[in-house]
Amino acid sequence: MKKLTAILLLATAFSAPGLAYAKDATLAIQMTNYQGPPAYLAVYLTKPDGTYDSTLWVAGGRSEYYRHLRGWVRGISGTNQRIDTITGASVGSGRTLKVGIAVADALIDAGYTIHVDSAVEHGAENRDDVVLPLTQANSGTVVAGNGYISSMAVTF
Amino acid sequence: MLRRLHSLPGLIAGLIVAFMAMTGVVLSLQPMLDHATTPQAGSMDVAELAQTVANQLPGVTRITHAASGAITAYYDAGQGALAAKIDPASGTVLGEMVPSPFFAFFTELHRSLFLDMNGRLASGLSALAIVVLAASGMILLANRLGGWRKLFTTAKGTLSQRLHVELARLAVLGLLVSGMTGVVMSLNSFGLLGDTGGTLSAFPTTVDGGAPASVGTLSALQALPLSDLREITFPYAGDATDVFTLITSAGQGYVDQATGAWLSFTPNGIGQSIYETIYMLHTGQGLWWFGALLGLASLCVPVLAVTGTVIWWLRRRNQPRIAGNVAARHADTIILVGSEGNSTWGFAANLHLALAATGHKSHVAPMNALAHDYPAAKQILVLTATYGDGTAPASAKSFMSRLTRFVPTQGLRFAVLGFGDRSFEQFCRFAEDTALAMRERGLTELVPFTSVDRQSSQSFAQWGNALGERLGHDLVLEHVPTQPATNELVLLERTDFGTEVQAPTTVLRFALPSERPSLLQRLLGRRSSLNFEPGDLVGIIPPGNPVPRYYSLASSSKDDVLEICVRKMAGGVCSEFLHGLEPGQSITAFIKRNPDFRPQSGKAPVILIGAGTGIGPLAGFVGGNDRHQPYYLYFGGRDPASDFLYAPLLRAALADHRLAGLATAFSRVVGGRYVQDSLREDADAIRKLVASGAQIMVCGGRQMAEGVRDSIDFCLAPVGETVTSLRAKGRYLEDVY
User: Fold this and answer.
1) Chain A residues 81-110 with a CB less than 8 Å from chain B
2) ipTM above 0.95 for this complex
3) Residues B108 and B188 in one domain
4) Quick one: which of B727, B725, B723 has its CA closest to B711?
5) Is B501 helix (H, G, I), strand (E, B) or coil?
6) pLDDT tens digits along A78-108
């Protein structure tokens, strides 16, 4: 049993070479108008077999709340990946999150899928609030969410 | 220094601190409401509860158990997540759970003012300000009252000062807890405390993966009492590799949905346990009564902020402005001031002006600024108050240590004038100590040590005469401390007593000014522009003399008449003027409140002791005692046939129980005695009254007051009480002249 911070160790050392082949992509998420404090979000990729691959973005900085982002935390907790360079503020009701993310070229059109988990204090925990296959055709496509997310688009 | 540490953050942060306190008061209601509306828990285990809830809500994803005991189930009903309130005793669904938008709003307002991190910073700083203010305030108060053991003795001073002290003493513990825990929570929200929220245990890799068992049959959950549960998260339906996630009061872990066994468990760290306790103390969540107490303490904060600002402003307004101050090296006269509340500075400024008018070059400075030597100085005049239990006031704290390094020039003389209040035990103690220390330092005394009681302008003027005599010229000191606006009052009637016994005394009744009270005064229910009660003072300015003389009032402004009782003193400027007044003539006067001299409220008895004109305010108290609180009056005069003041009022009051007992002592009759003597004769009765909580109020001349103190000490000696111990509890009050 190790601390999450200890688990998410030095992933930059592994991902840095990959950045050479990475595409700069834009992630845009529009939240619904819900009642409650800002939401925590985790945007991550799963492999073609459905298992966790890597994290693209985390909104919300307090690690004690990460357990509510269940699909993502379950995936990342077995890895040594670090997320401190891809973590930002939580996103409030009705707000828009727009950030730059890095997506490796090799993963596009290779059976990978983007997932977003969302959670709000004293509210719901949504595994797979949004699910979107990582294909070139889906670049810029606006998809609707099931929970706190109204819509999402990833452009690369 | 300490005072600035108190007033500076108080002024700067007063508004935000008061705001935080008020939002905190609102939030303190939440645990109380939760406690009142949450049903009592039964003896269910977690498995039973989870099964009961799952039966009613098939889509249940998570069940939480709040510190208040409230249980909430989150479930997916097809159109998004919903929350339901669960009965902790039976597990039945009580209805939809809607989080209160009211408390959510105030929570966010309290912790971040809706300004995100900047707001959280402001909130944290105001918590820090509360800690600094509470701690520095208590140290200041202990200093002022003469030590930590006297911290809870009666507060004196203006209404603002007393309110400030009384409320602060009530609230200080609560405010310290709120402030310190608030600081910790703020540090935590900035991530400066490390991991206090519980570390995340790694998702188990050894899931059984078999067919999920019914939740009610899982052994780990059956062994877990509901009281230990914080949160249970169900596995995703249809995902055989998912698990139950549990947070308990001891830690967190995972339970296999097929075998019902713990897959892993991480206990809480010590840091988290401490932080959870701090969180509970600050929010009152899980400890509703404590939260309510903190809420009550916080309720005092806005009043403390306002009264604190008033105190600061009054002190600042009285700050000295010395015009034409001569440099210390060139001055022939050095005026050193020891002051706590700045009132002494007014006297110093007046002395400075009077000296300048007679050709002196004087330098005015705080006592703390005592130089190594004064090359041109002929005399040093020290004007000082005494603080608390006989110690140095703020502007004289370092005087004694500086004096040891002071080098007096040849022939340098000094005089010390002490300011104080005779009702304090250590009256002018520091001033006397200063005089002694200067004598020991080799300085010669210009005029003997003199004390001034309650800023008496007469004593000050007399000291000026004596000083002028030694300096070889007239020195007229006419200091009128903050003269208020005066009124012209017309004499309605007078009743004379005591001429036969060589104690001419007159009771004067004046009409109140006819001018209409201001709108504010009318809103406050006042019928006259003057507002006073018995025991307050009227300052009367005699013709041709700017220094007011004070007389205790025997009536209330509600009586529509201003009544005083005046003994004619040979050569007394004001008393002779008043004794010469005829109805229709008028006086120039103003009211000086004396809020410390009032009978206690409630049902406990009050012993009133007065001699001669001292009966005046006491008769006023008796006359207004419509609630029939047991008042006992001891009156001393010379001859019942001549100076039994207020006899008709007292007889009527005895008849209708406004007065419970009356004892008189007359000195110029056969078997004559003083009021002190009748107190000693009644020792048993006095003891009983004091044992039942009686307060003693004395009004009269200085000698009589001294005799009464001795008598009361004599009466109370068997029960171990003294005048001093009663005074400390606010149960021995004197109005002495």
Assistant:
1) none
2) no
3) yes
4) B723
5) helix
6) 787 888 889 899 999 999 999 999 898 899 9
